[in-house]
Predict the structure.
Amino acid sequence: MELETGAARGQTEMQAAVGADSGLAPTRQLLPSGHPLVDGRTATSPLIQTTLGKPVPHTPVWFMRQAGRSLPEYRKLRAGHTMLETCFDTDLTVEITMQPVRRHNVDAAIFFSDIVVPMKAIGVDVEIEPGVGPVIATPFRSASDLDRLPDLDPGNVASIAAAVTALATELGHTPLIGFAGAPFTVASYLVEGRPSRDHVHTKALMLSDPTTWNRLLDRIATICAAFLRMQILAGASAVQLFDSWAGALSPQDYARNVLPHSKKVFDAIADLNVPTIHFGVGTGELLADMEKAGSSVMGIDFRVPLNVAATRFTRPLPLQGNLDPAVLFADSSSVDAAVLRILDDARGLPGHIFNLGHGVPPDTDPDVLTRVVELVHSESARRFAQSGYTATQN
Ligand code: CP3
């Protein structure tokens, strides 16, 4: 029988490629027994099954930056609190993370935090300026600056771990995705001191002083891995590594000066055996190298169609993406057409997690996002049913 869904079609190859078992749950002995992946709450969810290349009743969907300024309830809750204050406040973090799940019926929650939160937790003098982004009082430019990057002390992120644990309980069967910034993207903020288009200071350090560069990225990798590990042990069912600005690099510079450090992050949490997603913007030319970092899923931005991205990898990987966020501002028939085109592109993949190609813009109409979720769910379920495929045939 011709199998219509990507999840079904690529499964055998996918299982061989990722070493997935023949129906047994992946071993996760290192997670606490009450972890949602272990006690059965999230292991069979569409999101987690998709990361394993298993068949699902509908395509799972979530949005990068689904929590945030597009939601009036978020703007209300944030009034009077700085961004970083909010990230270290357990109750605010839980509530803000839950808001888009309640509103949009998405298949995953993304933990409300920021890529600079672990830097703040170790004492880096960083603030997030509204409308600007992370700003570092004293940028990192030389070897002596490395002394400002001690290991992450779990005591300094206790309020964040408490938020993860509370969310895992509140979310029930819906998985929580934890995240961290990848070493290059975090380094670009530390070195530039603020958001940058051209990353000149970062690239200058990388090329002129490779020893300091490698030590800097190695320190960040250790800290980010500890931050991810904390989130996983506290109850996150998957994690995403955001290398948002890696697309600013040539493939040579990426492979030589960045990839080993991103790989270190994935290697450091591999023993926990939870699904991992790796995402960057403008990374079409880097995808083949990014695969080598070792995530279970690759996030694709909107510049490369999913079926084209799939040809850049050595093995069949589940992919996440990739609606252009700007499409959310178009008329509804254009939005629908773009969503359906992405579902078409994803046929034949071993798994597809629907997402945007980058974060939700702050002035997005949230009702458009809710409609996208409905369309992805209904259309993928329809295609799934049409294919005649049932889980028991597998
Ligand atoms: O819903 C979610 O996706 C979870 C929340 C989340 C935030 N930041 C909240 C946030 C996530 C996953 C991030 C990651 C992050 N932060 C990245 C990687 C993802 C990406 O967008 O590429 C990067 C590069 C940052 C750094 C950063 N922090 C930027 C560029 C900005 C925007 C500045 C602005 O005001 O436009 C921030 C601030 C930030 N992080 C906001 C939110 C909701 C806006 C702050 C506010 O609401 O006042």
Q: What stands out?
A: The pocket of coproporphyrinogen III is lined by residues 64-69, 78, 83, 110, 112, 114-115, 128, 130-134, 179, 185, 195, 242, 244, 359 (CB under 6 Å). The chain has a mean pLDDT of 92. The chain has one domain: 6-389.
